[in-house]
Amino acid sequence: MSVYLSKLVYGINIRHNCRKCAIGGFLRPEHLNLTCYLRRTEGRSMQRSRRFEVRSRRPVNLDTFVAEDPEMGLVAMDSPNDPVPSLVIVKGRIVEMDGREEADFDTIDRYIAAHSLDRSVAAEAMALPSLDLARRLVDITTPRADLIRLFSGCTPAKLCQIVSHLNVVEMMMAMQKMRARRTPGNQAHVTNWRENPVLMAADAAEAALRGFDELETTCRVARMAPFNALALLVGSQTGRGGVLTQCAVEEALNLRLGLKGLTTYAETLSVYGTDEALRDGDDTPWSKGLLASAYASRGIKIRFTSGTGSETLMGYEDGKSMLYLEARCLMLAKGAGAQGVQNGAISCVALTGALPQGVRAILAENLIAASLGLEVASGNDAMSSHSDMRKAAKLMLQFLPGTDFVTSGYSAMPRRDNMFGGGNFDAEDLDDWMVIQRDMRVNAGIFPMTEQQAIAVRRRAGKAMQAVFAALGFPAIRDDEIEAAALAWHSDDMPERNLVADIEAAQAFLDGPLTALDAARALDAAGFSDIASNVLQMQRVRVVGDYLQPAAVLDPDFAAKSAFTDRNDYLGPGTGYRVEGETWALLSAIPQQRTAAEMVPLTTGAAGVRLVPRGPAKAGNDPAEVVLGLGPAFAEGLDRTLCGLVHGEVLAAIEEGVASQGLRLRMVRIHDTADCGLIGWQAARLSGSGVGIGLQSKGTTVITRKGLAPLNNLELFSQAPLLSREAYVQIGANAAAHALGQPPMPVPVRVDNMSRLRLIVHAMLMHKREIAAVNGALIAENLEMVADV
């Protein structure tokens, strides 16, 4: 019997017929017979808490959560099967590493020992307590360079032991310091289901203008790769010069695209942390090193791809933790000469995230990569959760400290067009992303733009592609395709193209002599000289090779910003990368932002009423009158309440309510205060019945009686956004009822718990306007309501 069921039935008096536990006829804790328990409860419906039932339908409960099982490889980090850190060097030769003798080394061990570990610092690094190294990671007085030197001498088990001492906040602190490039960046995915080159170019142009440093595409139909790569190149250089692009396809094809000048980086070089997993991909550490050299020798930037969970998913985890195997991958990547890695569980994120501390392990692998001096494209690309809250929480671990690429990459189009298996964040989430950047003064690599800017750059990219296709003899791009791409939400909004003809032309392009230089010539001839120049510059930078430096991206002038030229110099407050100047001005100026004057404009006679002064207000003696005190800006400076009612309609409603009880309403303007309680208090003192109503310009209302303290009242209606015309009618009727000594009726008030969130700024601005209208030198005055025609 399970422990849970033992606790459930222990000591509970349940009569049943089992002879083994029939002492007194009750279930005995020393004999917890499951069959007896189930037989006794058969047919009895289990009671459910409605709250638990409702929560069970929350998106997060669609996610999968699995218990740790080290023998199955279901451990994110700190597995009992992970080796203890160790390193023995004899006469410059590594003869033992992480508890394994040299004779027992697998190919990854041999590669790490031969190419990854810095023997000159290994003895020093391995002798230092892991806790001491963990503390140095978060110590703002320890420079990054010192840690890079020490970490280069650490074994995979040592690296895991170091980061295991850190909680996620400490890892974030360390990541801010250990990131290779001072300025964080971002990468976007640009694909579409229909393989439409016009839409792809338009999406690429918008993504580039939004600030993405790299764009990556892939193919639903592999033979479309040349056109996809061309569309990405032309579109990206339309949006902003210097954006790096790649097409994620099979390696031989990827190299061919690079040789034609259509791509400038690659990150599809996958590595794994066990020999069996590598062999499953027909690879060895040496073949990966050779492939990396093949790309770099042709001026193509490369990073390896790894990530926790991949070996477990493939069934070759060897009982080790996901993080330990990832540490082996990272050391392999470093030894192979890769300048960086794409890691962070990547396509296995749902597997790693299903485990306890799985998200912590993902941040830990990012940090280990950065601590080895590698560029980090930190995942956040594949779907990690059904829950928006959980996705956002995971994102913050990289978003806030910043990585070289916060995502790898962000889906620049709607999820349904994402051919990488659906993006974790996509075109629907752009506004949320930019608001969070603004909230926290963080640069996570995406900049705001207006709708018109987006339409214009998308349209221009479409026209540029039209010119290239026409000049190079590819299937024609029609004007209606360009206009559709400029305005489209997803590929279903695009006119149909002849996909067969496009595939044939793409294959001919790949097999023939045409290159990116021919595209540049076509652009120049068609009047797109700036785009042509950018495409040509992308070919030049490959020859120069500066962007092969670690963590390099290109600025709009095609200068490389890398770990060498934009070195991360963070050493605590006041150092390192800061969001300021023009960057902060751009990030904070989201299109949704409005000025105070735009949010609450000065009234332009739109109050629906004119209030004509009729002399000083005196205390009345008519018991049939109720006095309505109005704020100083009512219908003068402001013209409607927070709920959107024009002031004339509010006054008419209150008057109607008072009249319904047989009384009359006298209106007065209170000049010397903007406080609702004091407005009502003065109105009550002036009222012949002793009952007054206070009404602020934003709609907040109070009913009070003469003799009550200013902060006391009969009824208060503080939620102005929730008051409708019907509510104001009832407020008038209730005021009259109080004057008549009759019981008031409930005022109908809408329930809207989001109104404060939506309107608090408006409320503040309206109250500021009311305060500005206060004039202590003026006494209350009677008003006559004249319809504004």
The rounded distance between the terminal residues' Cα atoms is 82 Å
Q: What does the largest sheet look like?
A: 7 strands, mixed
Binned, the helix content reads: 40-55%
Unreliable runs = 1-17, 19-32
- Mean pLDDT equals 93
Strand order of the largest sheet: 14-20-16-15-17-18-19
Sheet/helix structural class: alpha/beta
How would you describe the overall organization of this protein?
By secondary structure, this protein is of the alpha/beta class. Among the domains are: 2-57, no CATH class; 599-787, Rossmann fold, CATH 3.40.50.10150. 42% of the residues lie in helices and 11% in strands. It contains 31 helices and 20 strands. It starts with a helix and ends with a strand.
In short:
The protein is of the alpha/beta class. Among the domains are: 2-57, no CATH class; 599-787, B12-dependent dehydatase associated subunit (Rossmann fold), CATH 3.40.50.
